[in-house]
Amino acid sequence: MEYRRITSIEDPLFAKMHKLMQEVFPPEEVLAFDLWKEPLEDPGIRVFVAVHEGEVVGATEYRFYEDFRVAMTDFTIIGKPGLGIGRFLYKKRQEDLLSLAAASNSELTGMFAEIYDPYRAGDHEFGGIKPMDPFVRREVLSHLGYKRLDFAYVHPSWSNDGEAVTGLDLCFLPTDDDLQELPAELIVKFLKRYYSVLPNKPKTWHDMVEQLEAKERIALLPL
């Protein structure tokens, strides 16, 4: 299996990846094909696909914030069972992030991720691909060490229509497994930068950020 980076919408592998995303994720979670041009050309956004026998069978997008010393996993797709795609993507992504941190004389203290809560959003079938089932994914990510940040989370729709997307938790995978909380200021700064690309944010998102700004620390709870 190959770990191939995509930096252009002209790359034939991107069309295959985008098709896979449309099969797996709900429409409001998928950025339109043409709108991927700038993100893919952004050196700070890392988009990689797992290629098996010429086909895209998995993908992951992530970024490293050098000044925050944290990463964000935008998404991970496992397109087929029985190939070890999840473990392959996890290891390759981790190697890349540690390399980026070392190159910037920084360190990786952890990684954010938005994780579906299937007890609130159990209607997401994710294209019928069983490894992408939200119950399976949540338990796997818990095994990896992700923890849920203790606040009600919403995020702006990637359709940029001002709608709020619910049914997810903002989670964090700390490098130090004993870490019990995060500074609220770090979470606020991260969210503002991460969603700066979407100008049409819902009022509930702004309200959430204001509530975070009024706090000092946010607990990390079991996923």
Description:
With 223 residues, the protein is an alpha+beta fold. The protein has a single domain (2-222), classed as Gcn5-related N-acetyltransferase (GNAT) (Aminopeptidase, 3-Layer(aba) Sandwich). 31% of the residues lie in helices and 28% in strands. The chain has helices spanning 12-24, 37-41, 85-103, 134-144, 184-194, 203-213; strands spanning 2-5, 45-52, 55-65, 70-78, 110-116, 147-149, 155-156, 164-165, 168-174, 181-183, 217-222. The strands form two sheets. A nine-stranded mixed sheet has the order 1-2-3-4-5-9-6-11-10, with helices on both faces. The longest helix has 19 residues, at 85-103. The model has no long low-confidence stretch (mean pLDDT 91).
Overview in brief:
This protein is of the alpha+beta class. It has six helices and eleven strands. The protein is 31% helix and 28% strand.
Number of helices: 6
Radius of gyration: 17 Å
* Computed structural class: alpha+beta
Share of β-strand residues: 25-35%
Report the CATH superfamily.
Gcn5-related N-acetyltransferase (GNAT)
CATH C-level category: Alpha Beta
Low-confidence stretches: none
- Biggest sheet statistics: 9 strands, mixed
Tally the beta strands.
11
